[in-house]
Amino acid sequence: MALSPALAVAQEEAGYTAGHPLPGQFHLQRSVTPIMDSITVFHDGILMWTISFIVILVLALILWIVFRYNAKRNPVPAAFTHNTLVEIVWTVLPVVILIIIAIPSFGVLSDQLTTPDGERKYLGSNIFSFGEVEVPAPELTVKATGQQWYWDYEYVDQGVALTSLMLNEEDRAASKPGQPRLLAVDNELVVPVDTTVRMQITADPTGVIHAFAVPSFGIKIDAVPGRLNETWFNARETGIYYGQCSELCGKDHAFMPIAVRVVTKEEFATYMAAFEGGDYDAANATLAAVQ
Known about the structure:
Layout: H1 5-9, H2 34-68, H3 84-113, E1 121-122, E2 133-134, E3 140-147, E4 150-155, E5 160-164, H4 169-175, E6 189-192, E7 196-203, E8 210-214, E9 219-223, E10 229-234, E11 239-245, E12 257-263, H5 265-276, H6 280-285
Parallel strand pairs: 3-7, 6-12
Antiparallel strand pairs: 1-2, 3-4, 4-5, 7-10, 8-9, 8-11, 11-12
Helix pairs in contact: 2-3
């Protein structure tokens, strides 16, 4: 399967639309943002074909060496010690390959770290363009703070905040049995669909380094005490999308998941109106119950 990029793309089985990894899944999670669109195309295209070419080439060279230069066919060892042409080729070829990979990768990386201003265009699925996807300026700013070991979220402009803790297995089975084990949380971060969300990422000043990562959004950035990093996403589909801390941050590193619930703009407006009123439970009650 590693030798055929087409097989990776073909994994569209039922359930693949979930915002979390599935048993037996070997491909990337399904993209719902322009950033993840470009990452997926970069992975399935140039990266997959390049590594497939390298694997086939190296395998062919090994088989040729085993066949052509074994002791039976060469009872008298060769006397030469090097070949100038071969040394040039094995030095220049990897450099050329890295340059080919680097050209689109710099664009993909730049897209992840450049918050939209309403004018800049993004690569999206065409990583060899100069940008053709229009993304509006941020309408919502959320500050995510990595604690030991959970996440705090603050809606910066609205002045309200919430804490998100992983549900233990007993609580998950009782309240959210349909959600994935070790990823389900008590309070999801709620954001509107088709809206650019600016994420400000940091960690508690007395804590350790974490990393905020949501694969379906294509975002991953360190949460460093005393530093405010920034990324963004614009989700085009409603649903719950899961991630995890991606930095080895301590004893409960594996138990601080990220859950982002994308709802319609109307639902978000109702939710936020209740939340700004000072009652998070009332705000949460405006949304459909998570099963």
